[in-house]
């Protein structure tokens, strides 16, 4: 039987809607035109000055292509009841979907294959998985889960390190992992693939040299030697100039927002635009500062 699950909203509905709009890379004007609502009203909703009706939440989330589960979260955040049912895989209404999942799992035999939900809980598996789990207790599963989370988190931080050094799209970089504890060699190929790296060498005694990018991960410290990859001095000069420019822009926005005359007379959407601009500049300054630190 279908049931409605009440999600716990982590933020006010305005913040959630703004986050989805930014994720879809749409401006307030673009969304307001598509949803046939004034940009001013949309700005008020996002800033918390207005509470959207049930119909408005559904209309905006439809134009933002928000998943049904997250639309329930938006409705609850706005003080309305969720409208989209959540069903277990065993529900009769999902018989066709369940059959498709089972067919895919069966096609992997004799190799193990399993299906996970969004919470990484196993909901189905083929017969080859049973021997792998034989004798595994709850502690063993928890330990395996922690290792998997550590690998995914480490891969994400390596990708961020690449981006902060200006190599987001490159997959030919060699990294060095100074492990905090023993790392299974079998995890390295998985980590390398997830991180988009050409290689990851494990070196417990590695000492960070000059011009080496670094990041701290659950598996230990990860380093990216930059010598030979870029002109470090020229890049440091460029980033310093870029950071000064961003700081100047932040100062200009702060001056406007500190002006009582500007805040009281300007339309709400203009003030909100300046607040958003300040947030974007601050995020960029943090990124530039991180890139400079990696060049020390």
Report on the structure:
There is one protein chain. Helix 1 crosses helix 3 (39-47), helix 8 (138-164) packs parallel to helix 9 and helix 10 (232-257) runs antiparallel to helix 12. The protein has a four-stranded mixed sheet, with helices on one face. It has a two-stranded antiparallel sheet with strand order 1-2. It has four domains: 13-77, lambda repressor-like DNA-binding domains (434 Repressor (Amino-terminal Domain)); 92-133, no CATH class; 146-225; 232-293, Helix Hairpins (Orthogonal Bundle). It is flat and about 65 Å long. The longest helix is centred in the middle third of the chain and has 27 residues, at 138-164. A hairpin with a 5-residue loop joins strand 1 and strand 2 (122-125). The protein contains twelve helices and six strands. With 296 residues, it is an alpha+beta fold. Helices cover 54% and strands 10% of the residues. The protein has helices at 13-23, 28-35, 39-47, 54-63, 68-77, 95-107, 129-133, 138-164, 187-195, 232-257, 260-265, 268-293; strands at residues 114-116, 122-125, 174-179, 199-202, 212-217, 220-225.
Provide the fold topology.
Layout: H1 13-23, H2 28-35, H3 39-47, H4 54-63, H5 68-77, H6 95-107, E1 114-116, E2 122-125, H7 129-133, H8 138-164, E3 174-179, H9 187-195, E4 199-202, E5 212-217, E6 220-225, H10 232-257, H11 260-265, H12 268-293
Parallel strand pairs: 3-4
Antiparallel strand pairs: 1-2, 3-6, 5-6
Helix pairs in contact: 1-3, 8-9, 10-12
């Amino acid at each position: 039987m279908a049931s409605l699950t009440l999600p716990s909203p982590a933020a006010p509905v305005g913040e959630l809607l703004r986050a989805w709009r930014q994720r879809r890379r749409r401006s307030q004007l673009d969304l307001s035109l598509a949803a046939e609502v004034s940009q001013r009203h949309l700005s008020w909703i996002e800033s918390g000055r207005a509470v959207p009706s049930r119909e408005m939440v559904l209309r905006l989330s439809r134009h933002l292509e928000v998943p049904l589960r997250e639309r329930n979260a938006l409705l609850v955040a706005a003080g309305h009841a969720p409208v989209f049912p959540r069903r277990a895989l065993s529900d009769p209404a999902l018989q066709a979907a369940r059959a498709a999942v089972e067919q895919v799992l069966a096609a992997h035999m004799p190799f193990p294959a399993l299906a996970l939900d969004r919470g990484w809980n196993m909901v189905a598996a083929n017969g080859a998985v049973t021997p792998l789990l034989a004798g595994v207790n709850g502690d063993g599963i928890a330990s395996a889960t922690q290792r998997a989370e550590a690998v995914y988190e480490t891969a994400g931080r390596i990708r961020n390190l690449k981006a902060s050094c200006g190599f987001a799209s490159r997959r030919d970089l060699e990294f060095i992992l100074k492990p905090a504890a023993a790392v299974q060699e079998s995890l390295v190929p998985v980590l390398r693939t997830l991180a988009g790296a050409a290689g990851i060498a494990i070196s417990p005694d590695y000492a960070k040299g000059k011009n080496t990018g670094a990041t701290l991960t659950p598996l230990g410290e990860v380093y990216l030697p930059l010598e030979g990859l870029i002109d470090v001095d020229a890049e440091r000069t460029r980033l310093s100039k870029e950071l000064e420019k961003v700081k100047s822009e932040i100062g200009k926005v702060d001056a406007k927002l500190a002006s009582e005359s500007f805040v009281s007379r300007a339309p709400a959407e203009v003030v909100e635009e300046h607040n958003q601009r300040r947030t974007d500049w601050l995020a960029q300054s943090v990124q530039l500062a991180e890139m400079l630190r990696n060049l020390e």
